[in-house]
Design brief:
This protein has 120 residues and is an alpha+beta fold. The protein has one domain: Nucleotidyltransferase, domain 5, CATH 3.30.420.100. The chain has four helices and four strands; from the N terminus they run αβββααβα. The protein has a four-stranded mixed beta sheet. A hairpin with a 4-residue loop joins β1 and β2. α3 runs parallel beside α4. The chain is globular, with a radius of gyration of 14 Å. The termini are far apart.
C-alpha cells in the first residue's frame, strides 16, 4: 500500500518537478532549514554529485555568528555557498527552496547567494 505524502512532501515534489523543466543543464542550489541551522548545497542532478556545500553549523561560521538559526546566519551561508560555487566554476544555478515558503531565512539565503555572485 502506498504511503500518504505529507503536505510538505507534496509541495517539495511540486517545486522539484517545476525546477527540472526549467533548469536545463544548470545545477540546483538546494536549501534545508532546521530549527537551529540552515544548510545549502549546489547539486549536479545529471551526475548526482554535490559540487559545493555550506551551513551555519560549520565551526568557523559558529564563531563568526551570534546565532546560527536566524536571518543573518542565512545571509552569511548564502554568501559562503556563492563563494564556494564560484571556486568550483559555477555561475548559474536554479534555486530549490524545497518545500519551504520563499520568506525569512530561505529568502535571506537566496539574497546572500545573489550578493555573492550566483545568478538565478
Amino acid at each position: 500500500m502506498a504511503r500518504k505524502m505529507s503536505v510538505m512532501e507534496r509541495r517539495k515534489a511540486r517545486v522539484r518537478r517545476a525546477l527540472r523543466k526549467k533548469a536545463g543543464d544548470r545545477p540546483r542550489l538546494s536549501v534545508f532549514r532546521s530549527h537551529k541551522y540552515i544548510y545549502a548545497q549546489v547539486i549536479d542532478d545529471t551526475e548526482g554529485r554535490t559540487l559545493a556545500a555550506a551551513s551555519s553549523n560549520e565551526p568557523e561560521m559558529r564563531k563568526k555568528l551570534k546565532s546560527t538559526g536566524d536571518v543573518a546566519a542565512a545571509q552569511e551561508v548564502g554568501k559562503l555557498i556563492a563563494e564556494r560555487a564560484k571556486k568550483a566554476g559555477i555561475d548559474k544555478v536554479v534555486f530549490d527552496r524545497g518545500g519551504y515558503i520563499y520568506h525569512g531565512r530561505v529568502k535571506a539565503l537566496a539574497e546572500g547567494a545573489r550578493e555573492g555572485g550566483l545568478d538565478f
